[in-house]
Amino acid sequence: GASLIFPFHSKGPRSLHAVSHHSFHTSCRSTNKQDLYDVLGVPRTATQKEIKKAYYQMAKKYHPDTNQEDPKAKEKFAKLAEAYEVLGDEVKRKQYDTYGAAGFDPSQAGGGSGGQQYWRAGGTSVNPEEMFRKIFGEFAGTQGFGDFNSMFEQRPEFVMELTFNQAAKGVNKELTVNLEDVCPRCDGKGSEPGTKVQHCHYCSGTGMESINTGPFMMRSTCRRCGGRGSIMTTPCVMCRGSGQTKQRQTVTVPVPAGVDNGQTVRMPVGKKEVYITFRVQKSPVFRRDGVDIHSDVLISVAQAILGGSAQVQGLHSTIDIQIPPGCQADQKIRLQGKGIRRMNSYSYGDHHVHIKIRVPKKLTNRQRSLILKYAEEEAEVEGTVNGVTATDKGRRSLV
Known about the structure:
Helix Hairpins; Chaperone, DNAj Protein, Chain A; HSP40/DNAj peptide-binding domain; four-stranded mixed beta sheet
């Protein structure tokens, strides 16, 4: 199925590029420690959601697996983990806000349990790798940290054109997409079928290597095998060893009834998720206002004066409406429950019919004579009527 995403905010991975750039102190035991809020690039009034999002973005930028060219990335990554360990816990955060880094004691704030010391500052102790895994999923083990990239990938985005009626009533519509998927030749292994792979002796087949940098120890993706645990001797000729190929697929998108222009759904395609944004065409008949729709109906002068009935086009069928006597131009007739279905609900909006009076441009002699007779009797007229003149008694007569 598809889950709806309203365009009230940026959509998850779309905001990953908005990474703030901040300076980091490189000393682990500096007496002039950088403020933890500055480390994450958030104000002191930030919500927990904003703090987590900032850590997510900065940790992605400085994670050793995605930033191997920066020799200080590991230390910056560890500093981010320390900042999040404190600010991501409301109890520790309050204590830090009160006493600052100098007086902060995590053991009194529910933290600082025993175990391996990865990085210490101001009394805190945190394993950066474990912190990252804990928040954003367990990626270690057989797959290694090489799969972190998939976590930060920009999900593919596609645009689907819809008619007004398709968007209002919902539809199952096919969409052709080109996506990276498991290579059909090597089944994602990356090596040419029938060839052997060599066991990586650098990491003993685990796909991970341990790096001791002094203040802390990090386990990172093996630089020799790229986290696979093995080395290919003959890469697959179709995917060139990546295990992925671009494949054309046709998927059926369940467009929910009531979707609006610019709204987006997130739906799975194979092992991936894609975003689909809807572009809704304008209707020649209907105008939309949330779940309500508006349309016009033309009636004659006689219908407006005497009343009667008319037919209007509805979303699902033709609807008969009653015209009340003395109906005015732009008067609205409300058809309750004949609008668009509310999202995640069984209720519907309304259909508002706007009355438009069709004034004839040409009259027969008989019609003109009758209208002039009527004009003679008409009492409330501002100005004059062509062909009719007023008398001393206030009545008008034909010219």
